[in-house]
Amino acid sequence: MTREKIPVVWGGAGFTIGDTFYVYGGQGENAGSFSQFTELSFDTAGVVQYKRLNENGPSSQFGQAVVLPGNESFAIIGGASGLNASTTVGEPLRASVYSFAQKSWTTLPGLEGADPSAVPIQRQEHTAVMAPNGLIYIAGGIPSTVNRTILADSWSYNPENGVFTALSTPPRGLYASTATALPDGRIVYIGGFFWEENMPDNMFGATLKYTRLVIYHTSNDTWTFQDVRIFNVFFGYTMMFLYYVLIYEIYKGDNNDAPEKRISYNHLWMLDTQEWKWYNPSIPGTQPVTRSGTSAGLLSQKYIVFGFGISRSIFYNSLDILLTASVTNEDSKEVDLTSPKWVNNVSTGEIADEEKWSPSGLSGGVIAAVVIVCVVVALMLLYLLYRFRYRVRRAIMRIHYGIWNPRTGEPLWAETARLISKVILLFLFLAFFVFVLIQVIRSPKATYIVMDTTPNARVCFEGFTPAENTEFGFEYPIVGCVTDAGDVCDDHLTKLDLEYYDPSFMGNLGQHVCYLFTGTKDRAMYDYETLLLDNEIVPQRNNGTNVHFTFYVNDKTENGRIHITFYPEKRNPNRVIFLAQHQRELNDQDIADFLESDNDDFDALHTVDLHPLDEGYVQYQLESKEYLEDVGWNYVGFAPVHNSTPEVSIVQRVQNAPGLGGGLLNAGEKMISRLTIAPASTSIMVHREQKIYSLVNAVGFIGGLFGLFVAFQTIMFGFRPRSPFGIVHRWSVGDMRRSISSGLKDRFDLNRTPVPLVNPV
Question: Omega into 170 within 30° of 0, i.e. cis?
Answer without folding.
Answer: no
